């Protein structure tokens, strides 16, 4: 399946990933499979740095340890780092 | 509705009467608690013509359904009153353990009215409420007051008090609790001072029953762990527990969101580095000091050893060091923290104070103020010592410049004149906080239209979409937005602003800590918790509607107290000027006046900002209004 990955708020990781929005070709059908593919392509450390807040299809929060959450072809996964602002 | 007592305590300081009243159940089903309950009481009890310092004004210390539950963020509570700086209604939130004790004393709120002949304090010990003389502690600072009252009553009592600034009715005086948390915005401390009320001492031992304790336990465990783990997993220098809100500088720098040199500059590398993470914690020897039940822990305890600027106490938050440091070009972390510490002990809002100091520094540079006015202080940009000394003059309400700055920047600029109004950065007589509308236009729209507490970055915080990456997908604010395009566009600004204002009102009514969202607390978590506590079966629509209903009443109060469309379209001149360098240089929020009118339409209000009858009906407010 092909999923869209969006990244917000991680300037260093964005640089390592080569952008803040890209397509990812994944073998499998779960959130865990997507993460495994990201580990393979970008390195586990870079991927782990993204595990702050994850949104599926602009609508559903994904618990970062809910690896069996189903993900389908054409879905979007959004990773954001929310930062305090006084 | 479970999770609340449907009871308020009322103290009339004039007559000395202390009573407990029962609220009709539908009141909290409509207004939830906290900010909502406060707005409701003000609407019913404080008519037009009552000034903030009049005995007829009310000050309402209000908890909500979340107070008392063992969930991270549930330590917050709200203070609502007619504000001395706005001369209109305002809500200011505060934290630590005081709200928890009040709720456990068996009431949802304390309403104080009247004026005592001599300084007094209110003591609430479960169901027993009384007034006691406070003459001996009048004049003590907020830290001493806390210590003395804990010594007198016992460590299991929590104290909310004012310092000398509140006693002397400085326009932006704060209420202080636990020597670490401050309801600064709006000048609630001055309302207490006007009533001769030095402190409220409270202890409670009752547990308010919730509807579904098993479900709530499950949610609390899951949420508390999530918040802790999410913060821990953040990249170095973004970890709140380690660095407090100083982490914000790392991101805000890239967005040009910080006030630099009274909002004139786009870059100040040494200041941003010295006051930001990780230098903040190192310089201040800061250790996390979380509020009750908090697993995030933005608050920190500083122990600074320094000949000039040594102190022990609460470390400054982002707003404090941005307004009292960056905005004055002061890059000495210890000096900035020390200035903040003085403000804390005197009980002063550091946002308004920083804005007033920055205006004075610029006025000095431009010759409006001279050494004669400043008592010999050289108010040159970056002069840390001058910042500290001027803070003392304001805190002590020293005759002349010190006193006038304590009346607010608008008054000071009017008095000294010579065009200095042009760099007095305020809206509706309240100084603007440390988020730059040129970094995201919605910040400006929220400052102008905020009905909860004037220009306030936490009462409606739409800028956080753009500068802190907050999403509220449950309220239609999600990642499908083109953030860079929308950052400087009015097209959807009304929708974003209104959604965040409604959201903020919900949080301030429940009452909960807005910082939880920075570590992954979602509206879904909030709604699930609300339903488990109250036994109601609300959805996101009813949830947002409740926030909007409260905002509507706040707006009606604004109108009652004389805030007009002219006030809401008068944007500070300085913030209309584009910056010459840094991120988003050359950008100014041109068209903001039209955006306000568009916002009124979006809200279902007429061109004067009056909610239309259909809106009143939609909000189920026919009975109240
Ligand atoms: S995040 Fe900060 S203000 Fe909020 S509850 Fe925790 S320590 Fe208190």
Automatic annotation (TrEMBL), chain A:
Top-level taxon in the UniProt lineage: Bacteria
InterPro entries noted in UniProt: Beta-grasp_dom_sf, Mopterin_synth/thiamin_S_b, ThiS/MoaD-like
Matching Gene3D superfamilies: 3.10.20.30
Protein name listed in UniProt: ThiS family protein
Coiled coil regions, renumbered to chain: none
One Pfam family in the UniProt entry: ThiS
Signal peptide per UniProt: none
From TrEMBL, chain B:
Record's protein name: Aldehyde:ferredoxin oxidoreductase
Pfam families: AFOR_C (PF01314), AFOR_N (PF02730)
Family: Belongs to the AOR/FOR family.
Gene3D superfamilies: Aldehyde Ferredoxin Oxidoreductase Protein, subunit A, domain 2 (1.10.569.10), Aldehyde Ferredoxin Oxidoreductase Protein, subunit A, domain 3 (1.10.599.10), Aldehyde ferredoxin oxidoreductase, N-terminal domain (3.60.9.10)
Cofactor: [4Fe-4S] cluster; tungstopterin
Phosphoprotein found in the keyword field: no
Domain Aldehyde ferredoxin oxidoreductase N-terminal positions: 5-206
InterPro entries (UniProt xref): Ald_Fedxn_OxRdtase_dom2, Ald_Fedxn_OxRdtase_dom3, Ald_Fedxn_OxRdtase_N, Ald_Fedxn_OxRdtase_N_sf, OxRdtase_Ald_Fedxn_C, Tungsten_al_ferr_oxy-like_C, W-dependent_AOR
Keywords carried by this UniProt record: 4Fe-4S, Iron, Iron-sulfur, Metal-binding, Oxidoreductase
């Amino acid at each position: 399946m092909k999923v869209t990955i969006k990244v917000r708020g991680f300037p260093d990781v964005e640089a390592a990933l080569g952008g803040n929005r890209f397509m990812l070709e994944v073998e499998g059908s779960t959130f865990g499979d997507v993460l495994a593919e990201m580990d393979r392509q970008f390195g586990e450390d870079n991927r782990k740095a993204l595990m702050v807040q994850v949104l599926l299809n602009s609508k559903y929060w994904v618990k970062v340890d809910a690896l069996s959450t189903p993900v389908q072809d054409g879905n979007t996964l959004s990773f954001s780092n929310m930062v305090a602002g006084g | 509705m479970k999770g609340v007592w449907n009871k308020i305590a009322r103290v009339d300081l004039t007559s000395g009467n202390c009573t407990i009243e029962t609220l009709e159940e539908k009141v909290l089903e409509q207004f939830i608690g906290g900010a909502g309950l406060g707005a409701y009481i003000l609407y019913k009890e404080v008519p037009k013509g009552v000034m903030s310092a009049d005995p007829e004004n009310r000050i309402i210390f209000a908890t909500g359904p979340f107070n008392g539950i063992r969930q991270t963020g549930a330590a917050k509570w709200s203070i609502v009153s007619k504000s001395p700086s706005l001369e209109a209604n305002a809500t200011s939130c505060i934290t630590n353990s005081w709200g928890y004790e009040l709720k456990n004393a068996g009431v949802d709120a304390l309403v104080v009215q009247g004026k005592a002949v001599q300084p007094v304090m209110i003591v609430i010990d479960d169901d027993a409420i009384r007034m006691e003389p406070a003459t001996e502690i009048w004049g003590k600072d907020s830290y001493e007051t806390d210590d003395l009252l804990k010594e007198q009553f016992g460590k299991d009592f929590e104290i909310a008090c004012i310092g000398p600034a509140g006693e002397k009715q400085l326009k932006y005086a704060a209420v202080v609790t636990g020597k670490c948390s401050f309801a600064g915005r709006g000048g609630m401390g001055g309302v207490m001072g006007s009533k001769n009320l030095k402190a409220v001492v409270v202890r409670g031992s009752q547990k308010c029953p919730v509807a579904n304790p098993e479900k709530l336990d499950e949610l609390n465990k899951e949420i508390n762990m999530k918040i802790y783990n999410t913060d821990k997993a953040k990249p170095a220098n973004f970890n709140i527990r380690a660095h407090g809100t100083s982490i914000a500088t790392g991101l805000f720098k890239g967005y040009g969101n910080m006030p630099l040199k009274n909002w004139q500059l786009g870059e100040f590398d040494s200041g941003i580095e010295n006051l930001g993470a990780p230098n903040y914690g190192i310089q201040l020897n800061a250790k996390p000091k979380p509020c009750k039940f908090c697993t995030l822990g933005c608050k920190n305890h500083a122990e600074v050893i320094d000949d000039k600027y040594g102190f022990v106490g609460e470390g400054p938050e982002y707003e404090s060091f941005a307004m009292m440091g960056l905005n004055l070009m002061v890059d000495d972390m210890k000096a900035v923290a020390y200035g903040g510490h003085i403000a804390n002990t005197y009980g002063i809002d550091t946002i308004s104070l920083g804005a007033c100091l920055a205006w004075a520094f610029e006025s000095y540079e431009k010759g409006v103020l001279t050494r004669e006015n400043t008592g010999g202080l050289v108010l040159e940009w970056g002069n840390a010592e001058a910042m500290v000394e001027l803070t003392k003059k304001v805190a002590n309400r020293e005759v002349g410049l010190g006193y006038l700055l304590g009346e607010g920047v608008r008054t000071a600029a009017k008095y000294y004149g010579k065009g200095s109004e042009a760099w007095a950065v305020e809206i509706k007589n309240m100084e603007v906080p440390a988020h730059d509308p040129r970094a995201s236009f919605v910040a400006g729209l929220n400052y102008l239209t905020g009905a909860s507490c004037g220009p306030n970055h936490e009462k409606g915080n739409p800028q956080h979409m753009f500068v802190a990456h907050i999403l509220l997908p449950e309220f239609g604010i999600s990642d499908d937005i083109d953030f860079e395009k929308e950052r400087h566009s009015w097209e959807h600004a009304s929708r974003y602003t209104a959604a965040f204002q409604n959201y903020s009102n919900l949080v301030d009514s429940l009452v909960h800590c807005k910082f939880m969202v920075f570590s992954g607390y979602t509206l879904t978590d909030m709604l699930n918790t609300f339903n488990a506590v109250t036994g109601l079966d609300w959805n996101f629509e009813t949830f947002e509607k409740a926030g909007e209903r409260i905002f509507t009443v706040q707006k009606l109060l604004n109108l009652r107290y004389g805030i007009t469309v002219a006030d809401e379209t008068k944007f500070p001149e300085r913030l209309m000027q584009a910056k010459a360098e840094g991120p988003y240089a050359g950008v100014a929020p041109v068209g903001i006046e039209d955006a306000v009118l568009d916002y009124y339409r979006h809200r279902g209000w007429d061109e004067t900002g009056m909610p239309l009858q259909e809106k009143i009906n939609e909000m189920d407010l026919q009975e109240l209004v």
